[in-house]
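Appendix C reproduces, verbatim, an entry submitted by the partner laboratory led by Prof. M.T., so that reviewers can inspect both the input and the predicted structure.
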Amino acid sequence: MAVLTTQERAQAVRRLARRMYDEQSQTANLDLIQIVAAIAGIDDFLESQMSAINQAIPQPARGVMTVPQKAELLAYVALKKTGAI
């Protein structure tokens, strides 16, 4: 996988900002520039750790799951661990 494009990061910023401020009524004292930096940081980190994340999935699941399935697995576990779902 490659890092998100500038347009994809901008979409992620808009979605995250909308969720944080409108839907969840959170006041994190973050401006959009800080949210952009946070998304870029996580995106770059995930890109650098993709091999390790993939290796953490035991066989045979690692061998048969698609990349989108592995991404959904990662997202689900992260959201579940934080109580977001």
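Residues 49 and 55 are 10 Å apart (CA to CA). Additional entries are available on request from the coordinating office.
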